[in-house]
Amino acid sequence: MFILGYIVVAIAAYLLGSIPTGFLVAKARGIDIRAVGSGNIGAANTFRSIGKTAGIFVLVIDALKGFVAVEACGMILKCLGIAETDVEDHYRIVAGISAILGHNYTCWLKFKGGKGVATTAGVYLALAPAALGIAVVVFILVVAIWRYTSLGSMLAAVALTIAVWFTRPDMCLRLVTIALCLLTLFKHQTNIQRLVAGKENKLEFKKKPAGGGNT
């Protein structure tokens, strides 16, 4: 029954995380988000390529996917007749990982998705809110100073890993956070190359035409 619980939680969380919010929002406006800007379906490319309102909407919904996936875990276990035990946190961690993988590798778009930053934030809002708060502060400071959302996202992922290590005693969560940080860096490898080459676009708040920006 425990194995069944992990399987059901993982599948449900993956499917929730796989909802391609940015793609759907752009499609509703007659735009294929994969063909504009960086081609990424996440909030950052939506913000730059479609507009601030659309970008914020995608950011919030993508974060909610991660948060709801973790918080709904208890209800799924109750439906399966699995009593809350000391392993419930492990189910929640599995749900969080699955939601992030669903966003990053959505089955609805040939397993090509976003970079998982917003969904990861939602997951850690449920799993480790204090550590997330530290990561958010790092993100805001980096973006405010250098105006690179990609750099802010990567440094926030590193800050989250460090914060979780010092604020949460659960070794499983610590190790998972390290793995997710590495995944975030991997998903940003093209951004790293552009940052090194000095070609990464900075965040601008003025409206840009579709196709502008490359991050």
Would you write up a description of this structure?
The chain has 11 helices and no strands. The protein has helices at 2-17, 21-28, 43-49, 52-71, 73-79, 88-104, 117-127, 129-146, 149-167, 171-187, 189-197. It is globular. The N and C termini lie far apart (44 Å). The chain folds into 2 domains: 1-127, no CATH class; 128-205, no CATH class. It has 215 residues and is mainly alpha-helical.
In short:
The chain is an all-alpha fold. The protein is built from 11 helices and no strands.
Give the topology.
Layout: H1 2-17, H2 21-28, H3 43-49, H4 52-71, H5 73-79, H6 88-104, H7 117-127, H8 129-146, H9 149-167, H10 171-187, H11 189-197
- The helix/strand order is HHHHHHHHHHH
| Total DSSP E strands | 0
Judged by helices, strands and strand pairing, the structural class is mainly alpha
Largest sheet: none
The shape, in one word, is globular
Report the mean per-residue pLDDT as an integer: 91
Distance between the termini: 44 Å
Percent of residues in helices comes to 55-70%
Q: How much beta, percentage-wise? A: under 5%
Number of domain units: 2
Q: Counting H and I runs of at least 4 residues, what is the number of helices?
A: 11
Low-confidence stretches: 208-215
Give the C-alpha Rg: 17 Å
Give the key terms:
215 residues, mainly alpha, 2 domains, disordered C terminus
